[in-house]
Amino acid sequence: VHLHEGSKLKHRKSSMEYRIPPAETYHQTQLEPPVGEILDWMNTKTGRHVEVYVSRHDRLMHTFKLASLAVAAVALLLYGLYAARKWSIVCVIAALLIEMISTSGIFYNLLNGMVLVGKGRNGEPEYIMRGFRGQYLGEGLFCSSMMIVSGLSLLVAARAPYWINSRKSRFLSLAFLGLSLLSGWSVWQCYKYKTGMYSSPGWFPQPGAKHGSIRNDQGFSF
């Protein structure tokens, strides 16, 4: 079995190419295909019965990691309950973290593979997966974080005059307003690169589009 990314093989010393038949190609359905799924496909094609060998040390380390994560999660939950009763800001931080995780698309990655950064065809890092139907974990966390930063920056820009004197408050308000716009712009650019949003067609109606009520619209319609 030859593991190769692509639909054809090319000879190193000549221009000859061998196109792999679709029936002999493993179609990847997840960012990180399960080992068992690949083995089942290989066994079906080769008529062999190859199994995954997991050493005793690997099994023990896997069990230890799961137990450590469970203990850490329980300890963090107990401390979080204690801290929330003592400091109200903890509830705000927890709410922002929940919002960030909920809007990051992490559940897609839990089902299809926790890949932080992908790889292009030539092996270079690929930070944004093109298309609507998939994402890397890094791009999801980045966009959700920038949306949180944008909202918090607007809050600070509006409340700065009530916290400090006038000269510094003006500078802080403008600085955080700029940070909010920059954060929102970065999310927009990410979506634009990922899906082609507002690039084809553009943001504004096309030349020749009628103006007036929605009945006359020949550009963007609902």
Describe this entry's structure for a reader.
The chain is built from six helices and four strands; from the N terminus they run E-E-H-H-H-H-E-E-H-H. Strand 3 (118-119) and strand 4 form a beta hairpin. The protein has helices at residues 35-46, 56-86, 89-102, 106-112, 137-163, 166-195; strands at residues 8-10, 17-19, 118-119, 125-126. It starts with 7 loop residues before the first strand and ends in a 27-residue tail after the last helix. The strands form two sheets. Strands 1-2 form a two-stranded antiparallel ribbon. With 222 residues, the chain is mainly α. It is flat and about 75 Å long.
Radius of gyration: 26 Å
When the domains are counted, the total is 2
Helix content: 40-55%
Number of helices: 6
Indicate the overall shape. Answer: flat
Instruction: Give the number of DSSP strands.
Output: 4
Strand order of the largest sheet: 1-2
Query: How far apart are the first and last residues' alpha carbons, in Å?
Result: 51 Å
Mean pLDDT: 79
Please state roughly what percent of the residues sit in beta strands, choosing from under 5%, 5-15%, 15-25%, 25-35%, 35-45% or over 45%.
under 5%
Largest sheet: 2 strands, antiparallel
Structural class: mainly alpha
Low-confidence stretches: none
Order of helices and strands: EEHHHHEEHH
InterPro entries: OligosaccharylTrfase_OST3/OST6
Organism: Perkinsus olseni (Perkinsus atlanticus)
Pfam families: OST3_OST6
Transmembrane segments: 63-81, 87-111, 136-158, 170-188
